[in-house]
Design a protein that fits this description.
Length: 376
């Protein structure tokens, strides 16, 4: 089929575009990702549709804009991408667009080409997400811009299929009245060629790793509270610094954002990975860490439940209640106890390894595309 994919950056949909092309679909990938960079991630050159020449000044401005202007610049950039993609859109049987971004482009795909509309939503239902973010102590208001809420809600009604990555995101949509039949739950994959089983480096004390922005949204305040209350393990953070205070303690180590090959070395040092997020559609780092042999401890607002159900042995993934320091600390103790049983090469995935590949992700998507178009 002819498949159009419209996005801002790479996200997970570049991996989807690459794999759908391998499966025989004629894919057009519209984004501001430069052609050379897209090809580094395996996108065939014939799939690339360059939007960067049209929006380069706005992309540059978005990266340097002060916090108080960032939402406004994001809005302008998203509107520009949507309008340009709508103008350049080639004939397609299926249109896959990012939620909150694709309005005019989605309309054009349906009205001009009769395309089925798939909406990619990586997080919870926007109203559920907004409620969670507003409840976080110290969060900046408004947590979600009004224009974003309006475009998200429009998309939920307009789309033929809403694609979400996890059980908890699925539940947030059904709780807000979206029919289950309209939802397509498809857990994200991981580059298994890059993220492979590791042998843990020797260390004096247990090491817990968290990868991602150090922010309240990600539950870093709860994670640090659990670390202090336990005082029996050390915490390694790899990523940017957000709106949460950075600890100054012998128990805490910070590393700035690193390349993926360096990230594997960080995983090699650690016993387990923890994601204490208050709302995270999936958490790609969870699949990365599992592929490298790390047991997981994560909240029930991540993709941990989905990953656990894909494994042959569920003990490698511990899912705890969100917003609970006690539950998180107990879960980390449980995860470290499981990790202590590992020796030699840490291969958690075993026979389930192929289920977590981007190819498997795309194959599930492929079957959904076929079924959707056939039903029409």
């Amino acid at each position: 089929m002819r498949v159009a994919i419209v996005t801002l950056g790479r996200f997970h949909v570049l991996d989807l575009a690459r794999e759908l092309a391998v499966l025989g679909h004629k894919v057009s990938f519209y984004s501001y990702v430069p052609r050379g960079r897209a090809m580094l991630f395996g996108l065939p050159v014939e799939c690339h549709r360059a939007l960067l020449p049209y929006v380069a000044p706005m992309v540059a401005l978005e990266r340097v804009a002060p916090r108080q202007l960032k939402s406004h610049v994001d809005h302008m950039l998203q509107m520009a991408i949507d309008n340009i993609a709508a103008y350049l859109l080639e004939p397609c049987d299926v249109f896959i667009g990012m939620s909150g971004i694709c309005v005019k482009s989605a309309k054009r795909a349906r009205e001009r080409y009769g395309a089925k509309i798939f909406l990619e939503r990586a997080s919870r239902h926007i109203l559920s997400q907004e409620e969670i973010l507003l409840a976080i102590p110290g969060v900046k208001r408004p947590a979600v811009p009004t224009w974003s809420v309006e475009r998200e809600l429009w998309g939920y009604d307009f789309a033929d299929v809403i694609t979400i990555p996890s059980y908890h995101t699925e539940r947030s949509f059904t709780e807000h009245g979206v029919p289950l039949a309209k939802l397509f739950r498809n857990p994200y994959g991981v580059d298994l060629r890059m993220f492979r089983p590791t042998t843990k480096l020797a260390a004096k004390n247990p090491l817990v790793i968290y990868v991602g922005t150090w922010s309240l949204r990600k539950g870093c305040d709860i994670l640090w509270e659990a670390c202090q209350s336990s005082n029996s393990w050390q915490l390694l953070h790899v990523g940017a610094i957000g709106d949460a205070p950075v600890p100054s303690s012998r128990l805490f180590e910070h590393r700035d954002v690193v390349s993926q090959d360096q990230l594997i070395e960080m995983y090699r040092r650690a016993d387990i990975l923890v994601l204490a997020s208050r709302e995270d559609g999936f958490g790609l780092v969870l699949a990365q860490a599992l592929a490298c042999g790390l047991p997981l401890v994560c909240t029930d607002r991540t993709g941990g439940e989905d990953l656990r159900n894909m494994l042959c042995d569920p003990r490698w993934v511990t899912v705890v209640a969100h917003d609970s320091c006690t539950a998180l600390r107990d879960g980390i103790d449980q995860g470290l106890a499981v990790a202590a049983q590992q020796t030699g090469l840490r291969d958690i995935l075993g026979d389930a390894r192929d289920k977590l590949s981007w190819r498997a992700y795309a194959e599930r998507y492929h079957h959904k595309l076929i079924a959707s178009v056939t039903q029409a």
